[in-house]
Amino acid sequence: MRIGFYQFSPAFGDIEKNLEMLRGSFAKELPHILVLPELAFTGYNFVNREEAIKYAEEIPGPLFEEIRSLSKEKGVAISTGFLERVGDNIYNSAVFVSPEGDYYVYRKVHLFYKEKEIFSPGDRLFVFEYRDAKIGMLICFDWIFPEAMRTLTLMGAEVILHHANLVLPFCQDAMITRSIENRVFIVTANRTGVEDRGGERYVFTGRSQVVAPGGKLLLRVGDEVTGVFSVDIDPDIAGDKNINRFNHLIMDRRQDIYRC
Questions:
Q1: In a domain, 63, yes or no
Q2: Is 260 a catalytic residue?
Q3: Does residue 253 fall inside a structural domain?
Q4: Of 57, 134, 140, 195, which is the active-site residue?
């Protein structure tokens, strides 16, 4: 399986421009799965909830249909962050869309900083299958809670799609640790650029990457680079949880003494 990410700097509030940038990024040869950053089509730094509501869409909706059309046209599964509206709630969500039209929606469980004033939190983690790979999804700040990644691992995930707007300098390196802890592939699609609005200034760190089970860095780009980048992976490798011939990552856990 070939898997990749699209790193770029979204134009705040300009969904059509961001779609055009995505269309312009497609090369002749695309990965089987393309991962985009958190809130890839709207930008991140909303002044308040009222502003965010203006850009939020239900599924199905115009943005979703554009993504589904692109996925079918290009023959690539697209997994992207987006701003979802469900009734009176808005979610910091991610949607995975296959060329066949199947889709899965994940809603960010762990809200960061002032996101708590804007979004409702998601309430579940899940794993699905695509091209014989078992896939889980996380969004940005979810990374700091090891329980989230471990839960997906125990559900059988082999590949974690991590949609991000990372601003802290150590986040990417922490994902190497998460891979070691769980022996899974992790694709972090981060954004670049700066958003300075409403008294809050965010400098996004780029450095999108793909990490293999055991923590090997397969691919990482720079902090200001833009474009689509990809690498071949074998998801079956993540099924082997043996650390060595005496130790097994899952079976050696001491649940009899853990307290949480």
A1: yes
A2: no
A3: no
A4: 140
